[in-house]
Predict the structure.
Amino acid sequence: MSDVDQVQKSQPSPSQSHDDVIAQLKWQGKQIDWLLQWLVKFVANTKVEMGVTLSVGGNLVSGHLISHDTYFEQLAEDISAPFSQFSNGTDASMKEMILSFKPGESTEDTPAFHFIHLKDCRTYSTDGNPICDTRVLWRGRISAVDGFTIGLIAEKPGVS
């Protein structure tokens, strides 16, 4: 079998269900951390926020774990803000569009979560310095997280 055939065979098809895709990822040696997935669902259902630090692709990502609803509400505010200078209602349209991306109500019956959302987030490179000057919203795939700890990275004196 050629490399192209192997890659095509290993790629999930759009018609596969989420459960089939998860099973395929597990078969390929990639697993979604069930505990991290549970924490994301817990935060979504309780609206509690907690500091976490994630190891993602060699970088450390540290911020407050928030619900997907909170993430999309803040994203809508952030994206629509620059449009408030126009008096044509573009800011409200942008906000409405972003809010339409929200997955819906958080309930116990919500299917497994596949994305994690952080606020006041900083990404740190291997030298220990933050990559961004300011704290930002962050969204990532749970399956891309290599490991995590509860708590935030302590900042170096003089770094805000």
